[in-house]
C-alpha cells in the first residue's frame, strides 16, 4: 500500500516525534528551564510538523513533498538549537532530528 | 451545513485553543517556569483535545459527543490548575476553559 | 493575544474546513460519486491543510507563513476542481476556497 | 523514553492508519462507491482517532487511556463495517482494525 520509501520516512518521523517530545518534557523539568525556551518551542514545532507530514504521507497527499521540504527545515532548526545544549536529551534529540532530515532528503529524491 | 450548536461549540473551542496556547507561551517565559510545569502540560493537553474535538465536529463524526465528554474533562483540569496561579494569563485561561466546558455541556445536551 | 490578521485568517480557515467537509460528504452521496473522486480527495487535502495552518497560527509558529503558502496552493487546487461541477455544494465550496485563498494572501503580506 | 507497551500500540496505530486510508482510497474507486459510503466514513473516523491517540501517547498524555477506549470503539465499528464487504482491501482493513483493537486492550490493561 505504501512504498518502502514512505514507510522508512514514517518510521523516522515517529522516532523524531518521540525524541522531540521527550526533549520538550525534560527541558521543562530542568532547573534553568527559562534558558530552554527556544529548545522547548522548536521541539514542539518539530513534533507538529512531523505529525502533519506523517498524516500527509499516509493519505498519499499530492502535497506531501512540499510539506516534507518544510518539515526538513523545521527539523534542521530543532537540531541546531538542541546541539547548543549539553543535556543528554538535547544531544539525543539533535541526533534523531538529523536522521529525520536525512529521511526527508531521501524521500524528496524519489 | 453545521447546526448552530455545532458552530457555537467550534467558536468556544477556538477561543480555548488561543487562550491555552497563550498561557503556555507566557508560562514558559515566567521567572519561575519550573513551578508552572503542570500548567504548561495541561495547557498543551487542553489545546490538543480542543483541536481533536473541533475536527470531529467539522467531520460530523458519530463519536463527537464521546470526544466532547473527554474534552470537557481536560478543560476542567486545565481550569483548576490555572486558577491556582495569580498570573493574568492563567486567570484568563481558567475563565475561557470554564466557558468552553459550558459550551461542551450545552452541546452534549442536544 | 493573536493579532487581528491572525484571527481573520483563522475564521477563513474554519469556514473553509466546514465547506470542504460538507462538499466531501455530499460528493460521497452523489449518484455518480465515482466522477467526484478528485473533488473528494482535494476536499480532504484542503481540510487537512487548513487544520494544520490553523494550529500553526494558534501556536504562533515561526513557520506559519511557509505553511500558509502551501495551504493557499491546496485551496486553489480545490477551488479549481470544485468549479468544474454544477452541484450546489461544489460551487459553494469553490467560493469559500477562493475567500480562504484571499485570507492567506492578506496574511502573507503582513 | 516510551515504554515497550507504548511503542507496540504506536506501531499498531500506524498500521491501522495505513490500512484504513488504503481502504478509503480503494472504496472511492470502486464501481459501486455509493454502497461503500459507510465504509469510507468509518475508515476516515478510524484513521483520525488512531492519529489522535498516537499523538496522545507520544505526548504521554494523562488522558491517553480514555482516548484509547474511544479509539478501540471506533476500530471495532470500522472492522464490523469492513467485514461486510468482499473487497480484498476491506477484508484486510478489518483484520488490521481487529489487531489494533487488541493492541488498545493490552495497553488499557497495563
Could you write a compact summary of the structure shown?
The structure is a homotetramer of 110-residue chains. Chain A is an all-alpha fold.
Beta-strand residue percentage of chain A: under 5%
Amino-to-carboxy terminus distance of chain A? 17 Å
Q: What's the β-strand tally of chain A?
A: 0
Give the overall shape of chain A.
elongated
Parts with pLDDT < 50 across at least 5 consecutive residues of chain A: none
Q: Roughly what percent helix of chain A?
A: over 70%
Largest interface: A-C, 16 and 16 residues
Structurally, the number of domains of chain A stands at 1
Order of helices and strands of chain A: HHHH
Provide a count of the helices of chain A: 4
Reported CATH architecture of chain A = Up-down Bundle
At the fold tier of CATH, the topology name of chain A is Substrate Binding Domain Of Dnak, Chain:A, Domain 2
Q: What's the multimeric state?
A: homotetramer
Indicate the structural class of chain A: mainly alpha
Task: Provide the residue-averaged pLDDT of chain A.
Answer: 95
Query: Rg of chain A from C-alpha positions?
Result: 14 Å
- CATH hierarchy class name of chain A: Mainly Alpha
**Biggest beta-sheet profile of chain A:** none
Protein name (chains A, B, C, D): Four-helix bundle copper-binding protein
Pfam family, one (chains A, B, C, D): Csp
InterPro entries (chains A, B, C, D): Csp_YhjQ, YHJQ-like
Amino acid at each position: 500500500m505504501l512504498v518502502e520509501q514512505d514507510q522508512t520516512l514514517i518510521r523516522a518521523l515517529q522516532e523524531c516525534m518521540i525524541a522531540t517530545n521527550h526533549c520538550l518534557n525534560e527541558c521543562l523539568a530542568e532547573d534553568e528551564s527559562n534558558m530552554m525556551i527556544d529548545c522547548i518551542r522548536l521541539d514542539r514545532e518539530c513534533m507538529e510538523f512531523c505529525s502533519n507530514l506523517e498524516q500527509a504521507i499516509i493519505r498519499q497527499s499530492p502535497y506531501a513533498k512540499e510539506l516534507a521540504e518544510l518539515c526538513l527545515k523545521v527539523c534542521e532548526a530543532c537540531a541546531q538549537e538542541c546541539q547548543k545544549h549539553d543535556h543528554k536529551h538535547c544531544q539525543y534529540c539533535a541526533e534523531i532530528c538529523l536522521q529525520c532530515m536525512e529521511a526527508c532528503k531521501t524521500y524528496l529524491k524519489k
